[in-house]
Amino acid sequence: MRVLHISTRRVSPNLSEMTFSGDLRHFKALAKLLGENYVLCRSTDSCMHMIVSGNLTFYLVPALLDLIPFALAKAFDFDLIVSQNPFMAGFAGVLASLASRKPCLVTVHGYRFTASRFWNPMKRFVYRYSTSIRADSEAVRGEIASCGVSSRKVVVLGSRVDCEMFNPRVDGRWVRLLLDIGEKPMILYAGLLLPIKGVDVLIRAARLVLDRIPEAVFVIVGEGPWRRELEKLASETGVSDSVRFIGGVTYDDMPSYMAAMDVLVHPSYTESLGRVLLEAEASSKPVVAARAGGVPEAVVDGETALLFPPGNVEALADALTRILSDVKLRKKMGWKGRRFVVENYEFWSQEKRLVRLYERIVEKQARGRRTE
Q: Which one of 38, 207, 219, 324 is least enclosed by Cβ atoms within 10 Å?
């Protein structure tokens, strides 16, 4: 089966962006299971490229709008079109699907459940004319249903975690040496630095946690336009010495950061599922997260994680204090988290489920044609 994946991401010819996010593993896995795989993205240098790596091929087009004519021209060569979002990628995929009469599956994930007025008409068009929609959580399915989409059109298939890459055997000591943390309690945040991610709530909670556990260290991994504001807030609240903004790290290094930490915190105001939560659980580490969007589907509240109301500084501080003060609780939650992820989100199991979904969509489309 030949599948064309369409993404709006900007990717350089060396595919470093795909490596950084871990998505290259995903597309290579699909290429192995499908026999071949094709990905259409934007290039970082505004030039056209075709990169072939074994049975995986990347097409990089110069600009966002170039996705549409390229998809229209190539769609006839494929059995299925998979769009990675319901906006421009979805629009290009649906147009190509209508022109070629090939099925189009639209994936809906990420933390933005809503869109601006500019994008909403496009999203509704994509939802209406796509063959099928994949949501990564029941929370996202609900958002899609609010647009008038039949639940029968939506399939829930969650994210995937490489449980060999993220596992409790990983050595994180070099991270603690690099950050000069020693044996101090380490709280990790990993994600974008945007207002919607709630990192300001974490910094305000840090003040309360440090009053109870003075040696605690908060490590902030990630970049974003709100970094200066957050650094300023850390200074104003008097926690700068205990909060480390270290910027982005490579995806290959993330398992070591997970291994080094005592607890992952995820204070986001909205989230479709939260792969970083699954990666922490796979690493046998407990999670403290805001009860938002699909987060309750990514953890088991009270068993693998402690959830708190979004934006509630005191509740976040209480949850962190409870976990940091109880070694047995951390170990118990970590063990349960590992088992939960292996049973529900293991990388190859999820990839195989995705391929089976592709096959069902293609077979259903073929049956429909035969009855015409």
A: 207
* Domain architecture of the chain: domains with CATH: 3-160+347-370 (3.40.50.2000), 173-336 (3.40.50.2000)
Count CB atoms within 10 A of the CB of residue 63: 9
How do residues 159-173 score in pLDDT, each as one tens digit?
A: 999 999 999 999 999
Contacts of 263 (CB under 8 A, 6+ apart): 186, 187, 188, 285, 286, 287, 288, 320, 323, 324, 330
Place of tokens 């639209």: 106
Q: How far is the C-alpha of 2 from the C-alpha of 17, rounded, in Å?
A: 24
- Is the pLDDT reported for residue 372 higher than 60? no
Supply the pLDDT for residue 12: 95
The structure tokens 């896995």 sit at 29
Q: What is the mean pLDDT of the chain?
A: 94
C-alpha 151/C-alpha 167 separation (Å) is 35
Contact present, 309 and 329 (Cβ < 8 Å): no
* Distance, CA of 344 to CA of 160 (rounded, Å): 9
Residue 188 exposure: Cα atoms within 13 Å on the Cβ side: 30
Residue 59 in tokens: 């097409």
Q: Are strands 56-61 and 80-83 parallel, antiparallel or unpaired?
A: unpaired
Q: What is the 3-state secondary structure (H, E, C) of the chain?
A: CCEEEEEEEEECCCCHHHHHHCHHHHHHHHHHHHCCEEEEEEECCCCCEEEEECCEEEEEECCHHHHHHHHHHHHHHCCEEEECCCCHHHHHHHHHHHHHCCCEEEEECCCCCCCCCCCHHHHHHHHHHCCEEEECCHHHHHHHHCCCCCHHHEEECCCCECCCCCCCCCCCHHHHHHHCCCCCCEEEEECCCCHHHCHHHHHHHHHHHHHHCCCCEEEEECCCCCHHHHHHHHHHCCCHHHEEEEECCCHHHHHHHHHHCCEEEECCCCCCCCHHHHHHHHCCCCEEEECCCCHHHHCCECCCEEEECCCCHHHHHHHHHHHHCCHHHHHHHHHHHHHHHHHHCEHHHHHHHHHHHHHHHHHHHHHHHHCC
